[in-house]
Amino acid sequence: MTAITSDFSSAPVLPKWIVPVLLLAFAYGVVPLIGSSYLFEAILLPFLALSLAGVGLNILTGYAGQVSLGSAAFMAAGAFAAYNFNLRVEGLPLIGSIFLAGIVAAAIGIVFGLPSLRLKGFYLAVSTLAAQFFVQWALTKFSWFSNDSASGVIDAPKLSISGFAFDGAVGRYLFALTIVSILTFLAYRLVSSQTGRNFIAIRDNETAARIIGIPVLKTKLLAFAISSFIIGVAGVIWAFAYLRTVEPAGFDLDRSFQILFIIIIGGLASIRGAFFGAALIVVFPLGLSRLGGFLLGDVFDSGVLDMSQRIVLGALIILFLILEPDGLAALWDRVRRRLLFAWQST
Amino acid sequence: MTFLSTIKAAALSAAMIVSVALPAAHADEQYFPLQSYRVGPYAAGGTGFFGGFIDYLNLINIRDGGVNGVKLTWDECETQYEVERGVECYERQKSHAGAAAWNPLSVGIAYAMIDRITADKVPLITVNHGRTDSTDGRVFPYVFPLLLNPYSETSGIVNYIASKEGGIDKLKGKKIVVLYHGSPYGKETIPIYELLAQKYGFTVQQIEVPHPGNEQQSQWLTIRRAKPDFVVLRGWGVMNPVALKTAVKVGYPVDHIVGNVWSNSEEDVIPAGDAAKGYTAITTQASGNSYPVVQEIVKTVYGAGKGNLEDKSRIGSVYHNLGIVNGILNVEAIRVAQEKFGHRTLTGDEVRWGFEHLKLDPAKVEALGAKDLFHSINVSWDNHEGEGYVTFQQWDGKKWNVVSDWIAPDWALLRPIIEKSAEAYAAEKGIKLRTADDANAVTTN
């Protein structure tokens, strides 16, 4: 595992909040004005949902060192829980459903986090697979979860918070952006708090952590709970704001791997790494596919084109990881330091 | 000539070419966005279906110069049968002008598109599959499960079993086992089998096979103990050949297994080898390449080197023919709409009107060169399935042979169930039920 990336101490550093605030101002103020429906529906919404899931998994895996392959299960739990709270609890506002869905996902996370008290590393990863299989099986098996819909596929409710409806692509984008920003901010505060330091201590040396008085079991379960909460809410965004349908098959093992790859590529133990990783996983294949279609569309049929894009993407990921095994966040830090250095020496 | 003036002249002529060429290129084209899948677990179905669809569109372009002079265009976007890729393709392709209809051939993608296509007013065709209740055009103006929805399919299968037994009253006391794929698709028909069992007095036992269906020993041992008169195979992908092989292993007669519409292709029986001999399955379109329209495709399209299937032995296979039939339905809907709105590029809403007036009786089907390929269709503004007839085909080890007449599902029985489900959806979504007048109001731009 890597240490937390820290800023280069001698370089003049802007206040930490400047970049996020500028980004948020851009995301709220400029993007809705200039973006096309394609940008929102096909790029930004999946990007936001997967980034948030990445943030959630990074707390568990990156900071607390507990490897998990069950992320998609927690997304599914969140999505279906939010659907059911919204459907069955009269008068509950949407934001309440989403919060309760996060709580449900967190509870499931704690249950499947229990093996972490005994298991480590790959063994734990395999035991979290149980969550992956169990949740998907339960959602398919018991039609109550999908309100007895014959095929098990469900439609998302209208997104509205205290009378204000988030209709259309821009509305859903703002809805997702707000939730992701708030949770990311909270996650950021968490990992720089004492609890976050406890996570890191357990990750780096469990015995040492125990000796200095960190309650290891409690802290591990807390990491599972918080991580699952965030991933559960990411599942709600995925289902309600992005696809607008919920289907258990959409949250399969592939999705869990995807989220794991996001944090590995983006950078373990880095909040912004989750965003970098999600950007690479979501945006890059689309860019490649459009470029490939534009350049070679007439030569290959769509199947061959898609296969070649996968090869290129795979090669690029290998290249990235060789150049910077600590992920895009570390790569970005290095680039920034060099730029600052170059700027200083002029 | 100086360098500058050369550039100027070049720019001028380029501008002229563009200004002349552009309107001509866009004037009379009708575009099909194809969310196809040629890689991934369901590539066999995707290549066959979209191959047939493209072959038919090519036939219309090459033979007739388009539909009344309106050229058909299309492009493909690879979905791998994944919902989020399908959504991305939708957003990418919808910006193209003159989109006629969407044909994703995927339940998941279709579900995710319903809100979007309803807002954008372009029809969504889910031939032989999709949401059963989208048959109700009062609630789903833009969704068309043409030819067959899952409930009609079930009813057709039960009617066929009845005909084998010598009449619907002979079903009393019989036992049917439904072996279904453990997925939303597989579960869709559970309530309707229960209902039909009650109505006709047979007993039904529904047994799930977990996805993907590689292991079915225990299920078939259960079936052997139950000694059913018929087994209905509601399978998908690898589950189908495994079911046939395991049935032979436990000694259940294969000719008493009836496959549903996604268990009826060559890809389902060839891997099972001899075990599949005698297996029967429902279909909306017969297979084989003897039909005039398929022959014309071979001659005109493959003859011109524009055929879409790489493996020409798949011409006339179940999925290829389904693609061709799907092509016929789409093209004829455009033709119907053109008669009303003019021989030009139509809007999605006009094409929707065309689908809602798509009536192909057997004579018309014959004129299209598709006699016996499929029976007929009769779509109306509130019935988006169009009362398609089904038939049954039996695998003889080499090819499918049609073994029944065209059979009508029990539409009268199914309609109230469909309406109830659609009305529940409308209530949940706050949708106002459409009337015939609403259906006649068309957005023309």
TrEMBL record, chain A:
Organism annotation: Mesorhizobium huakuii
Major location (coarse): membrane
Record field: transmembrane: 17-36, 42-60, 67-85, 91-114, 121-139, 173-191, 221-243, 255-271, 278-296, 311-332
Organism domain of life: Bacteria
InterPro entries attached to this UniProt entry: ABC_transp_permease (IPR001851), LivM-like (IPR043428)
GO cellular component terms, A-Z: plasma membrane
Entry annotated with the keyword Membrane: yes
Keyword Ribosomal protein set for record: no
Topology in membrane: Multi-pass membrane protein
Protein keywords: Cell membrane, Membrane, Transmembrane, Transmembrane helix
Localization, UniProt: Cell membrane
Higher taxonomy: Bacteria, Pseudomonadati, Pseudomonadota, Alphaproteobacteria, Hyphomicrobiales
Name of the protein described by the UniProt record: Branched-chain amino acid ABC transporter permease
GO molecular function, one term: branched-chain amino acid transmembrane transporter activity
From TrEMBL, chain B:
Domain of life: Bacteria
Annotated Leucine-binding protein domain residues: 38-397
One Pfam family, short name: Peripla_BP_6
Signal peptide residues on this chain, from the entry's feature table: 1-27
Alphabetized UniProt keyword annotations: Signal
Entries under Gene3D superfamilies matching the protein: 3.40.50.2300
InterPro entries the record matches: Leu-bd, Peripla_BP_I
Name of this protein: ABC transporter substrate-binding protein
Family label: Belongs to the leucine-binding protein family.
